[in-house]
Amino acid sequence: MSDQKLILVIGGTGAQGTPVVKALSESGRYSVRVLTRNVASEKATALAELPNVTLIQGSQDSQKDLHAAFTGVYGAWVNLDGFTIGEKNELFYGIRAYEIARYHGVEHYVFANIDYGLRKADWDERYHCGHCDAKGRVGDLILSHGQSGMKTSLLTTGPYMDMLFDGMFVPKAQDDGSFVWENPAADGKIPLIALDDVGVYSLWLFDHPSQSAGLNLEVATDQVSFAEIAATFTKVTGKKGVHKRVALEDYLSKAEPYPDAYANWAVKPTEPRDESFMTWRENFTAWWRYWGEGKGATRDMAFLDSIHSTRIPNLEAWMRAKSYDGRPRSVLKDLSDFKK
Ligand SMILES: NC(=O)c1ccc[n+]([C@@H]2O[C@H](COP(=O)([O-])OP(=O)(O)OC[C@H]3O[C@@H](n4cnc5c(N)ncnc54)[C@H](OP(=O)(O)O)[C@@H]3O)[C@@H](O)[C@H]2O)c1
């Protein structure tokens, strides 16, 4: 019989979960069960071809599906998707997923977290970003239950470095050959995380339970302002990169996925919603404030070096490794599904 430990990965077909599934599979120490709404999707079938990876069909917002998914697993890596299920459901199912994991005797639970911006900004409502705070609240709560019975770790990411390819961080190519990032970011440093390193940190959390139990591992590859992103782009590509700061109001109406979109933009506009649902604009107003002002630049880079000595050292190295040229490439599954 195999002595591999079985890990349930929720969100495994997504941008963040895919490198986690790959790292666990490649290690040879773990087998992986991926929860997906569609076991026949391109991303799901590609994962199922990896060694020791199986799929289970179900939804994050179904307690029945969560019970089936958590049955018989040693560990779990859980990334809920606020852009589909919304802030309120993320909070409810974030708590239920933890409780159901405990019921099934899961031994190590890794929660894919984001900064609890509202708490870190001293409860200033102007920083209440629904999809970040939903995760942050769940993260605080599950750590508060302590480490006896089930070990719990938080993997706290900020914006993906890979978003420089997709969505709000893609610069616009200008006729004169330069690239412009026109957005409301102030001059704060943003802790960008390269998705390639998310798998390594997740594997470390599972491999080192005595160090990772109770740990909130805030990760980043580099903490950089948008002016620094533009300057690094120029250094790497030889092309002129510029950050142009614009007013939030001017930016948001141009950037939203569709007019008057909700924060959970990735499901149909006609989906029932109540007053707890933020609009996309409200959500990303707080998001740009929090990250753009540098409030998330709290990562302990020396600690990250100590647990992942071969990590991608900085933005420049990432741009070189990816042959970054400012042109868009698909990163988010939701965004690519939405465009289809
Ligand atoms: N973009 C960023 O920079 C960033 C940074 C940090 C954290 N995050 C957070 O990451 C989450 C999104 O994950 P991602 O970045 O990997 O996005 P993604 O590439 O768009 O993937 C979305 C994932 O969520 C899964 N999913 C969505 N609704 C589901 C449901 N009802 N039941 C089961 N699975 C469901 C999808 O699985 P199937 O389609 O296969 O069902 C897919 O695996 C969001 O909560 C976001 O706040 C994003």
TrEMBL record:
User: Domain NmrA-like spans what residues?
Assistant: 4-260
Q: Which domain of life is it from?
A: Eukaryota
Q: Which GO terms describe its cellular component?
A: nucleus
The record's keywords, sorted A to Z, are:
NADP
* Coiled-coil features, chain-numbered ranges: none
Q: Which Pfam families match?
A: NmrA
Q: Which PANTHER family match?
A: NITROGEN METABOLITE REPRESSION PROTEIN NMRA FAMILY MEMBER, SNOAL-LIKE DOMAIN-CONTAINING PROTEIN
Give the family, as the similarity comment puts it: Belongs to the NmrA-type oxidoreductase family.
Q: What is this protein called?
A: NmrA-like domain-containing protein
Please name the source species.
Answer: Microdochium trichocladiopsis
